[in-house]
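Re: the request from the purification team.
They wanted to know what the chain is likely to look like in 3D before they choose a buffer screen. I agreed to run a prediction and write the result into the notebook, where they can find it.
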Amino acid sequence: MFTLGIEIDEALLAHQVSWFAPARQPFLVSMDQAEAIGVEQLAGELPAEVRDTFEIYQVPVGFVCILLGEEEFNGLSRTTRSKLIRGQIHLERGLTPTVRSSPHDIRSEATQQGDGHRFVWWQSLLKGHEEPVLDAYLRDGRRPSRHSEVPERLWEAAQAVLPQARSLAGTFPLLSGPNCFATVMAAAGVPGAAEVWMLQQPFEDWLQEFTVPGGADEVPGTVLVWRSPEGLVQHAAITIGGGYALHKPSQGWMSPRKVLTVPEVIASSRQPGRRLARYRLSTR
């Protein structure tokens, strides 16, 4: 499967399907709803991949998170299912798709889940539609990676300062967690950085030890760093030369390590209050 200009092999696609449509899915409900549904145990800490799929980073005050399997869900009355699904929209839980957005041949079944407007992607419903549905999900709101546009001479010139940039460019992570800081450090050759959730302080320590202020967008090894008004590092990317840069927009499994032009990276990383600073890799 190809999406965003990136190849996804069968093994990774199988994992992505399981994260996109887990066997037991999280729902945000009031305590009264949980009792009415008959939930005996609330969800504990969600796996990182499920948390990122459904964008449940904190449970709203007055609500709880429950887990339901397809059989449990189907065992509820249609009225209860409708209220449950509609509630996820109001609570801004991610991945609550419209029936209209689904493939034509499953719309009748999706319509029966609730009020006919929204539905839940269970694996049984997704079966046979994995590639087009995942492709649409992964492309939504995301720019394609330009790694295939980068001339060979630029990759060769970047190799000395960014030994792992080329192998990272145009890849999806194998799990949730790896973030922008990890991608920058890994591209610069930090062992083991590519697959971890790199926190702010280790990244700051690395900047202090291996970079100096300055740098140019046209050369490889310029670290672009966005900071909050308080000076806390919020996001980072690294140039690979020729006006291109490598970055990973988020820690989610659906967020690839991709190459964009430097203006595109700057535009996609712009948020109110953030300030952009540049550092260059140093051998000091």
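For the purification team: Residues 2-139 form one domain.
Please add any questions underneath this entry.
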